[in-house]
Amino acid sequence: MQRHLYAAVTLVVSAVALAVSVLSGCSRHASTTSPIASAPSATSSSVAPIPTTALPSPDALIDVLSRLADPAVAGADKANLIEGATPETAAALDRFTTAARDGGYLPLNFAASSLAWSDVNPPDVTATIVVTTAKPDNHEFTFPMEFKPSQGGWQLSRRTAEMLLALSSSRVSSPASSPAPGPNPEPGPSPTPNPEPGPAPPPETSVPSPTPTPPG
Predict the structure, then answer these.
(1) Is pTM, for the whole model, over 0.70?
(2) Domain for residue 43, yes or no?
(3) What CATH number is attached to the domain comprising 97?
(4) Where is the composition biased (Low complexity) (predicted)?
């Protein structure tokens, strides 16, 4: 069952994996040409306070994922649903929805539960997302995701996007598992041992010819 769930994860998270692959490539390229900013010292760093406002409703997060997976929404209209998206992200999202539709995974349905403020960046929200696909053998799986506030709404965080990309890449790059070897065939019956030779026959004795009796 787990193999089926991971297969579903690999396809569904391509909505993010394809999109953020461009972002990750740009990020790695920029790191080789731009000076590395010094990390803030431990004494000066601080964690943002937990918001006093209410957590978003599950529907607000579901709407983000539903739009990302909706082939009727153009990629250019949903690129802003991923943190740090670029114009190239739109084309990647369009490729994802086309592949998901052709693969028979659409429509996708989402459910969100266990919403909480992020312990790393409290303005962000974490949630457990259940994805249900149209595939009977890859029907449902659960995955934790993180969302960031954006322009009065929400978007998928860059950290979650990169984590999903790593998962997708690891599944693609890992070699296919070879089938387990079958049981060794049972040995056939042992060959019948050659019978031991019997005792040698006694040597033949020659019978002497009768001696003729001389005439009297």
Answers:
(1) no
(2) no
(3) 3.10.450
(4) 168-177
